[in-house]
Amino acid sequence: MKLGKIPENVLKRSVLRQLKTKNSEVKHGAGMGEDCAVFAFSGREDLVTCMQEGAVSVNPTEPGELTMGTLIQKCANNLACGGAGLTAVLISLILPESAEESEIKEIMAAAERQCALLSAEIAGGQTKISSAVTRPVAVVAGYGKAFCSETVEKKAGEEKDPWYPGKAVPGEDIVVSKWIGLEGTAILAKRNKEKLLARYPAYFIEEAAGFDRYLSVVPEAAAAVKSGVNAMHDASEGGIFGALRELAEKAGVGLTIDLKKLPLRQETVEVCECCQVNPYELASGGCLIMTAKDGQSLVKALEAEGIPAAVVGRTTDSNDRIILNEDEIRFLDRAGQDSVYVNNEEGVN
């Protein structure tokens, strides 16, 4: 199989269909497009959890490599989409025999810095040396508490029930925050720096390489839960097209998306053109997809918090997932391999 997420049909057939055992204390479990799991224990506050894994490096250079900060931020994003704030993480770190102690120290220091930014504790984990890996691999499990009335306004006398996003339903506006392709643009700009410098000024490339500063969707998720949002899903690997399809598959709805309304930074346009990749299939961490009955009101609420957002389409009651590009109509296919894997060091597909 190719690097990256396994194909959608393989995920459904060989992973999700094998999961048959149920437990009454699991309120929301594994499924297509699910960002995290919710466990209902005693008391009114549910435990919400998610997991992220990947090859990690202090200075990522290979396709699929991440910093520990990015991996932990992805956990925080998943929890925010599931209606919870990150409280703690468990980290399992598997290192090759060639690993030096200084490398372990740098990786864990980076993890601690990110957790400090998120006010989350590293509560435990494991660190092992294994001949099964050739570079460091980390598995991060994030744990959080469901948003209650402290973040969702309720009428006087109402109990502090946990708030969770729902599934998209037909007839809702589709809103996206910030810009698409942010995560992938930063990766490509760093990987193809010399090639890009032959075409663009250094400040332009530095700006594109710094797009990973936008990767958190926690602020927009927190604002959205108070502003009429129904469903939320973060756009990460597979790009905006892959994330939109996951949102629709999870809810069993159709989509009509106006391609021209999907927000793109000019740096993303230029980097993708030079590297010959599709910006709509490029890792889009930092972009949150939301559905709401009144998308314009949600956009105004997000913009009031300093978060750019746009209504890009609507959900429908059909099975069609349609992309409109002026007079051209195309259907949203199953997500392919993310462009960060397709791109090679020469910037050619």
Major sheet characteristics: 7 strands, mixed
Low-confidence stretches: 154-160, 345-349
Taken together, the total number of domains comes to 2
CATH class category of the largest domain: Alpha Beta
For the terminal residues, how far apart are their CA atoms? 17 Å
The helix tally amounts to 11
Range of strand content: 25-35%
Mean pLDDT: 85
Please state the overall shape, judged from the principal axes of the Cα atoms.
Answer: globular
User: What radius of gyration results from the CA coordinates?
Assistant: 20 Å
Supply the helix-strand structural class.
alpha+beta
Can you give the helix content as a percent range?
25-40%
The total beta strand count reads 14
**CATH fold type of the largest domain:** Phosphoribosyl-aminoimidazole Synthetase, Chain A, domain 2
